[in-house]
Every structure is written in C-alpha cells, then in structure tokens.
Amino acid sequence: MSCLDLTTLAGDDTPGRVERLCAKARVPVRPDLIEALQLERRLEVGAVCVYHAMVGTAVAALAGTGIPVAAVSTGFPAGQTPMQTKLAEIDASVAAGAREIDIVISRRHVLTGDWQALYDEVAAFRTACGTAHVKAILATGDLGSIERVAKASTVCMMAGADFVKTSTGMEAVNATLPVSLAMLRTIRDYAERTGVRIGFKPAGGIGSAKQALAYLILVKEELGCAWLTPALLRIGASRLLADIERQLEHFVSGRYSAAQRHALG
Questions:
Q1: Dihedral pair phi/psi, residue 66, rounded to 5°
Q2: In the structure, what pLDDT confidence band is assigned to residue 154 with cuts at 50, 70 and 90?
Q3: Is the pTM of this model over 0.85?
Q4: 128, 95 in Cβ contact below 8 A?
Q5: SS3 content of the chain, % helix, strand, coil (to 5)
Q6: DSSP classification of residue 48
Q7: Which end of the chain is more exposed for a tag (fewer CB within 10 A), N or C?
Q8: Residue 119 is inside which H or E element, if any?
C-alpha cells in the first residue's frame, strides 16, 4: 500500500471524486482491519495521481499528511503536443503544488532511434520540474521490442528521470512482467555503473493483490529489498487498493487456510 500511486485519470473526474480518493489515501485500510492486524505504524499510500486540473483540489485535500500529489503531464497519454505546451503544463502543475510529475516521452524518438532527441526532451522536462520528482512514462506497449524498452529506459535515466514507468495505463498493452524485467535490469546496470538508484513504476492493468505481489517479488529478486520502498517503487493503479483491503479482510476473518496464512507471514 505504501508503494501505491492511488490514481484517477478519467474524463469525468470531479473535485468530489478527487476529494474522496484523497480521503481514501489518508486512511487506505478500515480501522477495524488495522486493529485486527495489530499494525503499529500509520498506513498511507505513496502518492495521489491526477490530471493537472485536479492538482489544487488534491493538494488541499491532502494538506498536513505528507502524501505527495503526482500530476500526469506533457500531453498525457499520447505525448503529441508541442514542446512549449508540455513545458508549460509542467510549470503549471509544479506551481499548483504537485511534488511529482509523470511525464510522457515522445514515442517517435524511440521508434526512429533518435536517442539524442529523447535525451534532450527528458532533460528539458527534468529542468522544468525543478525539485519535483520526474517519472518518465515509456508507454512500453507502443515501443515494439524489449531492446527499445531497455535503450529508452537507459536514456531517460541518463537525462535525469527519478523513475522509469512502464505505461500510461491507456495503451492496448500496459505493464507486463517481461517488460518490467528488462527495465529492472537496466536500472540495476545503471546503479552499478553510476551509483545512482532509479525508481521503477509498473502501471496499467495491475488490479489485484496477487498481481501486485508478482511485481514485488520481481523487484526484490532483481534489485533487492532496498528498492521495496516508496522512494524507489510505485505501483500505478486505480482498482488495486480495493482488492488489497478485501484480501486483508479475508485474512483476519480466517477465510485463508492455515498454510496460506503462514505463507503470508
């Protein structure tokens, strides 16, 4: 839960919907479940992710919590707006209080092999974001090959991205384990070469606790426990939290077998 970017990116988003999402971000698990699980620390999500128009609403709703607001930007989800418009979007979101910016790369740079153009673009986004964290969305389902995914990941890291993210959640194919494995190995290679740890964010289609566990295991096996924190791992999802809470309810109510409870610790 602490690595979850709780997200709403719908055309019919309203201030009321975003405020309800932020209320859930403040208290992601029912108090009776927290008590039954005997959790001593406060639970909260990694961030709340919204469109720019809802940044102010989210910032106000999360005041005093420390939970950051993330804004999708740079012509999300297609990334086909002019560069000056993209930079203006970032400026506006940061000014409104967004502490994280999920930028969309121009896929054409990857598809045509223009790596310098991709580097220059992401570096410009990095500069515009200032102190805000940059999550670079590759839209891996549009890139055509694992090789392109790996190269794009590396270029984005070299250009200053704090995270590399699989997808917008709106492509025909979003986060997958094979693509995530390739991205994690580029992150590992980059850390070994530079000493800089880059975060990872799978997003799109991760709707169950079981699916999320598969990604947690993959990250642990490839990068180690150091990456299993909100500073270096986020899962972008809109439906996942509800299933996590449902599984916790099953756990405390005894609907899991003794073997399942033991396996879950």
A1: 85, -5
A2: very high
A3: yes
A4: no
A5: 50, 10, 35
A6: E
A7: C
A8: helix 115-129
